[in-house]
Amino acid sequence: MAAAPVWSVDPRTGKQREQVAVEATAEEVDEAVRAAHAARGALADRAVRAAFLRSAAAGLDAARDGLVETADAETALGPARLTGELARTTYQLRSFAGIVDEGAFLDVVVDHPDDTATPPVPDLRRYKVPLGVVAVYSASNFPFAFSVAGGDTASALAAGCPVVVKAHPDHPALSELVAKVLRRAAAEHGIPEGVIGLVHGFEAGVGLIGHPLVAAAGFTGSVRGGRALFDAAAARPVPIPFHGELGSLNPVLVTEAAAAERAEEIGGGLAGSMTLGVGQFCVKPGLVLVPSGGAGDRLVKSLTDAVSDTDAGVLLDHRMRDNFLAGVAERAQLPDVDSPVTPGAGGEHAVSAGFLTVPAQRLAAEGAYDLLLEECFGPVTVVARYADEDEARTVLSRLPGNLTATVQLSSDEAAGRGRGPELLAELTPLAGRVLVNGWPTGVAVAPAQHHGGPYPATTSTSTSVGGTAIERWLRPVVYQNAPEALLPAELRDDNPLGLPRRFNGALQR
Amino acid sequence: MAAAPVWSVDPRTGKQREQVAVEATAEEVDEAVRAAHAARGALADRAVRAAFLRSAAAGLDAARDGLVETADAETALGPARLTGELARTTYQLRSFAGIVDEGAFLDVVVDHPDDTATPPVPDLRRYKVPLGVVAVYSASNFPFAFSVAGGDTASALAAGCPVVVKAHPDHPALSELVAKVLRRAAAEHGIPEGVIGLVHGFEAGVGLIGHPLVAAAGFTGSVRGGRALFDAAAARPVPIPFHGELGSLNPVLVTEAAAAERAEEIGGGLAGSMTLGVGQFCVKPGLVLVPSGGAGDRLVKSLTDAVSDTDAGVLLDHRMRDNFLAGVAERAQLPDVDSPVTPGAGGEHAVSAGFLTVPAQRLAAEGAYDLLLEECFGPVTVVARYADEDEARTVLSRLPGNLTATVQLSSDEAAGRGRGPELLAELTPLAGRVLVNGWPTGVAVAPAQHHGGPYPATTSTSTSVGGTAIERWLRPVVYQNAPEALLPAELRDDNPLGLPRRFNGALQR
């Protein structure tokens, strides 16, 4: 059987641009994993991998114009957004280099012997070691930041783990270009190029998760695809951690007082957030609880105006376009669902933004309306009008897990009067990031960031953005009564590497 | 159908002591989980839960004599060992109270807005919140330390999670007594007694892992039982973390130089470690690589002498005794396997310790001898005689994951000469705890402890002993642009609770 070709496709026309590669055979997947595994020793030195990450960032910055051009041709996301996304990606690589330098992620803990403990404590010295080869499944919607050189790859390399990337079929040409830059950066530091593997094809992705030398996986994508891979990871003879970011509705609660105070501002802000990137953000607000009555009506009016003014856009591929159109149509035909601005086709390749409204009470119990509590990828949101706070709370209590939950408060509520503090506590069980008076689109790269949440937002308690993303690729090991002469430098009493640590119970910077 | 009775059985006679309870029905499991879930708010205050943990420890200490008597009657582990295990258990509860007080486990990270970042960073404040109800599956072999009030329960309560324990059928009467002490301690602090649920019966354990309000599970037991529960946890509509400690061979490598220097000391130490608690430790050394030749012969001779002198002992139950006798017989009948001291039946209820020897080359490739690379619970170990280091290394490379790996070195090797440092690095991939010149039995409760290892030692990268065991029951949440007036005290700029944290990138004690 001839190898299946991998085509780069222009979503603005639906036309094939070029053949980029062929789908990887089982043998090629095996080769990529073995090459990555063989490269792991070259990542052992923290100074080397920090330098590698910085070279990778510099290489991507230097190749910017060509990369953005290819990315735009394959994704239609536009040069401005893609230039920004690339900058974010290289910033992230450099941030992880800083995290490697600091070494706090090693979680060093040293306990000297203590005969007064029950039972007595021997000499114990713990830190974290890399898990091994990490499989990274790229996202469609962030061709740079959640793809070949994205957060999963950056954090895995920072942890000392080689990576084999399953390229997303929406940007195979870009994937090849970025992988080349990373490999060149590796070679600069004497790291075998196999440290970054790249495979194309659905079967290759399935093969990757089952490979005995793959030790963990990161994934960004759909609930269906992610769950299938999660299940495969759990069913292995030796199960492995699967850190998947699958789907999220990202609910927004607008209080009565907030609507009264800022109806137009909120309506306009929502329009901007839900249409950003043609609605193709995993943190797009997909369900907005708005009070019934006049203030809520004003909010919906301003949302209507702003969304009507939004240009049609091209989705990442035609399958997504079909799914979007079908998903919108299926939702819109439910009784009592209105569409003040109807989302739909915008010409042969584009789609136009819109939103639906529904009485919140329709969402209060299991039934056909549960469809409105499922993510619909693309520029559409659902505005649920609630009669009172209990109704809104009932809807929130029915939601599956989310990446984000947002509350729009009045100035009084934000100042701690009224129910502000309770609302924050009530939203906390729903999500991994809780926002006040903002919009969830835009995920900053920062030490405190948490981009994850209860299932199906993620399949683990981890984050795929921010400094702590590195924790996913490590496991602890403790040495008992190992003589100083045999210990890694990280664990020696005199702390020659100046690592932050816990020493005899006390935290030391 | 009448409810199935739960009997307390004396393993020294095989006779039923008393009926303790009945197996929980599905409705009773549901009630226990709902009661635990309803109690979670009462654990929200860290001061309250630290006080609860200390009261639980004090209550157990006060009830010591009765508890030890019941434990001994059900497990035959002996009053001395059980008194020590109870002391360890209350020490552990108090240690977790200290961990709660300190609050480092909250992992507080605060980032002020930063417009110079790419993209700009908003105000982000992260900490960790409890996952919810934790299901704890008790172990047979540690009726105190890995059971109702053991490490899983202590760490879950410390994290703010209510617990429902599946009692182990080997000590149901003790389980009831300990649960009562914990509930009394809870009541002292205004915490509903439902914060500690206790259910008996196999079906109850299966029901527990599938309950929608169970948010995570801890398990200590066999590979078969643990894997079945792991699979069930992963197959739920909403999968949950399953932290299982399943099985471990705990290999020991004795170098040629170590044998030459300390043959008798090593043989005697091994005998003590493998027969401790009648060989019923998850960290019992189950495979010992000993050089062929004279020094190794001396080691085997001293092991023979010491094991021959060991008294027969009673295993935890008769099923284990049957499995032990069958497992030993199956191993002993392999060609080239000798038993210098034959393990076997010691009277009607007890067993006698012994060990097997085998040429290491028999273990170098897949085949019938793989049985020797599986844990055999009870007082037996396998001594594999290796011709050269490569042969030993080949055997080590074939092992599944382990809780511990041990190397016995000569004084020269321990001082860093010869292959000491490389051997330590070679053993690291095998286990979560690597020991030098010691024995793996005995797991200290300490900040640096790591009791876990690659699968099947554990089903996750976590530990069930030591301070970081608390991490299993938490998930991060970040607040974005939440006004100071709405923030939990843990996340405020002025740090009113004095928590260690990362503040604008810098670690603060």
From TrEMBL, chains A, B:
InterPro entries: Ald_DH/histidinol_DH (IPR016161), Ald_DH_C (IPR016163), Ald_DH_N (IPR016162), Aldehyde_DH_dom (IPR015590), Aldehyde_DH_Superfamily (IPR050740), ALDH_KGSADH (IPR044151). One of its GO terms (molecular function) is 2,5-dioxovalerate dehydrogenase (NADP+) activity. Pfam families: Aldedh. Keywords: Oxidoreductase. It catalyses: 2,5-dioxopentanoate + NADP(+) + H2O = 2-oxoglutarate + NADPH + 2 H(+); 2,5-dioxopentanoate + NAD(+) + H2O = 2-oxoglutarate + NADH + 2 H(+). Its EC number is 1.2.1.26. Signal peptide: none annotated. Residues 8-446 form the Aldehyde dehydrogenase domain. It comes from the Bacteria. It is an enzyme of class 1 (oxidoreductase). This is 2,5-dioxovalerate dehydrogenase. It comes from Streptomyces echinatus.
